[in-house]
Specification:
Layout lengths: L2 E2 L12 H4 L2 H14 L3 E7 L13 H6 L4 H8 L5 E7 L5 H9 L5 E5 L23 H18 L4 E2 L19 H13 L4 E5 L14 H9 L4 E4 L12 H11 L3 E6 L2 E6 L7 H9 L3
Helix pairs in contact: 6-7, 7-8
Bound molecules: zinc ion (2 copies).
Length: 291
Amino acid sequence: MLTDYHLHLRPDEVGKAEEYFIQENVERYLAAAEEQGIEELGVSEHVYRFAESLELWDHSYWRDQAKDDLGAYCEFVRTTPLRLGLEADYIRGAEDRIASMLDEHDFDYVVGSVHFIGEKGAVDDQRYDVWESFPDADSLWRTYFEWQAELVRSGLFDIVSHPDLVKMWGDGRPAPERDPRFHYEPFVEAIAESEIAVEISTAGLRKPVGEIYPARALAEMCREAGAEFALSSDAHAPDQIGFGYDEAMKFLDDLGVERICVFEGRSRRLEPIGRTGVDPDEIADREGAGG
Ligand SMILES: [Zn+2]
Ligand SMILES: [Zn+2]
């Protein structure tokens, strides 16, 4: 089986729920998944697109975005074949409020993310660039992975998303001087003590860094720590469904991972990795042709 769980039904900052949370749009995503042999699709809208998120964190970016109703989103997704997920930011100090919000809805899974390191800024958004708040790359990387470790230890989430998002800008930002494995360490320790799944996200292939999240060395450390993995594209449009999955499957194969996490009602099982109902060579030809 293949899954694509971390996906969005509309581009960031674009569009109202009533334009994108409609059956026709879901059909486009499902058709793209079927073509790729991806058996299970779930949607995980950003928590900050919902008015309820302002109870978790009052930030100007969130205030601009927080328009939708979380209950209406959950109800809509339940009228479709999609699994019901949410991409929820880890907000230090808001753990209890995050827990109550998540408890109010019957999610199949919750994806936990660190985009903002609190008021210091965002690792993936130039308008709130976190790099201006840190003296050097090593202090930022250390802090980023400490936040990721806290996210894991909070026990609030089923999947830790884009585990090394801090690398997103690639050569566009300074690299740490220390071996990155030194910075991964606290995060991997938390992984070892937790049941959370580690996301293999092909979104990094579309970003300046041009590689899968997590880096190979981090994935190996997670594997040694006993982690299981979840597979996603972080698509924001139907044509990004399953993006780079051949590379991701090779990545997992090289790690010796044969099964991925499948979620329902916030419990998980493991299923063997593989496309469903399509000829793999046909997919490879299509991707090779730039499709
Ligand atoms: Zn994200
Ligand atoms: Zn996302």
